[in-house]
Every structure is written in C-alpha cells, then in structure tokens.
Write a structure and sequence with these properties.
This protein is an alpha+beta fold. Helix content is 24%, strand content 21%.
Length: 209
C-alpha cells in the first residue's frame, strides 16, 4: 500500500495544485523540517514506530494548528505493541478519541456508511460505498470524543468482536485539521474512485491555511 500510494499521491498533488514530499524516513519528523509543511500524513506509520522526540515534534506540529491525516495503521493505539519498558504516547490516545486498538478481523469486503455528507472531507461521496479491508476494531466507539464522518456497516462483513456503533472515519474537533481514516490496508483500494475522492478531500482540507 505504501509503495502503491506514492505515484497516486504525486499525481493527485499535480492535479490539485499542492506539493507533496513522500518519505519512509522517520528521522525527518523533527521541529525544523516540519516547519516546511502545512499537513502531515501518517500513511501506515504506527505511533509506536516513532521515537519519543519524533512523537513530540509531531504533537507540537499538530497542536500549532497544522493538519494531520492518519491512514489505517496510524490508528494503532495501545500498549500491546510496546516493550514494557517503553514510554507510551498517552497524548496520541486522547488525540484519537480515547480509543484502544483491538485485533481486527480477516481482510474482507464490507460497506462504509457516510454519516456526514456535508463535511468538506466527505462532500461528494455516496451515502454508502464498498471496499475490501481489515476492518479495524477498537475497545469502544470514539463517538462523544470525536465527530464521526463515516461508520462501518457491520452487517456487511464478519467482525472479530462487534462494536455496534463502529466509526471508521472521524475528526477530532479539539484540533484544527485532524482526520483519521481507518480503511486503507491494501493497494487495491487506490483503484476505488470513492476512496480516492475521500483521500483527495482529506488532504486538501487538512492542508488549508
């Protein structure tokens, strides 16, 4: 997915008049370098794959009012992935709506239900669209702490542990431009016109000055 996304994002940038720097080097996440950008996309970069100084630099960037787009593995909150001696990034858990990641079901086709079709990120999307994904689950719904844009229709696929209310795309309005998109595991999703529309809108919204 990461490799496949690079040319897609570069083409999207060219067509929509924004610049994008694509890197897999987490050392670039520092105060000095981040000053150059209006938005930061965590494309499958898990929070625990950053060092504490990198985490703090990104936190400072977000708290200053800059944009953040999290895709899929960016939402891997919780201590289960960490060495017991590691420092846990508590702030990020709250940033994500106070939820903890729970093991996902197997990769399968399901339906996204767009709740808020008036928001700039979801504007122009159909009420429902299908994708194949690892439908991420969490210990609870973040609703109440975040503004939900879309949910997973749990009747359309087999869950690991049904959530009932299952947000899959949301924003945290305590931050100026934050959006998390839990779907996006497999490169085939980049051929889905609705997902590309969502991704484009999310980047443009997050990058607004």
């Amino acid at each position: 997915m990461i490799a496949a996304a690079k040319p897609v994002l570069e083409k999207m940038a060219e067509e929509n008049h924004f610049a994008v720097d694509f890197t897999d080097d987490a050392d670039t996440i520092n105060d000095e370098n981040l000053k150059r950008y209006q938005a930061f996309m965590m494309l499958h970069l898990a929070p625990f794959d950053m060092t504490p100084p990198q985490q703090q630099a990104l936190q400072k960037f977000i708290e200053s009012g800059k944009g953040w787009v999290g895709i899929h593995a960016a939402g891997l909150t919780g201590r289960e992935f960490l060495d017991p001696k590691s420092v846990y990034w508590e702030w990020f858990e709250g940033f994500m709506g106070g939820i903890l990641y729970s093991p996902h079901p197997h990769y399968q086709k399901g339906t996204v239900v767009v709740e808020d079709r008036k928001h700039p990120v979801t504007k122009g999307l159909p009420h429902r669209f299908d994708v194949s994904d690892e439908w991420y689950e969490f210990n609870k719904s973040p609703r109440g702490n975040v503004h939900v844009l879309a949910t997973a229709d749990e009747s359309t696929y087999k869950q690991n542990k049904p959530m009932g209310d299952h947000p899959i795309i949301w924003i945290n309005e305590n931050y100026r431009r934050m959006i998390y998109i839990a779907i996006g595991h497999d490169p085939s999703i980049l051929e889905n016109k609705d997902y590309l529309h969502l991704l484009r809108n999310a980047i443009l919204w997050a990058g607004q000055k």
